[in-house]
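Sequence design from tokenized structure. All designs in this work follow the same two-part layout: the structure record, then the generated sequence. An example of the structure record is given first.
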């Protein structure tokens, strides 16, 4: 997430809740220098998160990776068992070969083995690039295994 610099050089979060209230008594949020009612800004943020989740879910499924649609978190936990690699080996190779970082499922306990955790809290352009690189990685892996 990008953050702006405040006047003292400290990094500030992207969203600011303002203590001021509008004429109707609604709280406002400042986002990228613009103010909007909090409920509107939160709806927009939720819609953007939904779009990123659906995009990533569709891309992973098109790559042949099984996964369910998460309901609350901003992480997807696809199965990589079809690759024949352990979750740690998959993550290491993806990082070194395509410079895409994901978390091995084994980091979350024995039941996470065979899965990876991917965050979709990034911008769509970052997600598109990561998916493109992941497709290349999986295609190369299939060629190796022949």
């Amino acid at each position: 997430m990008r953050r702006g610099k405040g006047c003292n050089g400290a990094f500030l979060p992207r969203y600011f809740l303002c203590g001021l209230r509008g004429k109707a008594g609604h709280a406002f949020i400042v986002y990228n220098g613009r103010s909007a009612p909090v409920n509107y800004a939160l709806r927009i943020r939720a819609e953007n998160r939904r779009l990123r989740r659906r995009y990533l879910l569709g891309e992973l499924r098109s790559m042949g990776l099984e996964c369910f649609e998460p309901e609350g978190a901003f992480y997807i936990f696809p199965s990589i068992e079809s690759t024949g690699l352990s979750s740690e080996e998959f993550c290491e190779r993806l990082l070194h070969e395509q410079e895409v970082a994901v978390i091995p499922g084994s980091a979350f306990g024995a039941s996470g083995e065979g899965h990876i955790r991917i965050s979709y809290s990034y911008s769509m352009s970052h997600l598109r690039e990561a998916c493109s690189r992941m497709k290349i990685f999986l295609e190369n892996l299939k060629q190796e295994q022949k």
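The chain is about 40% helix and 20% strand. We note this feature because it recurs in several other targets discussed in the main text.
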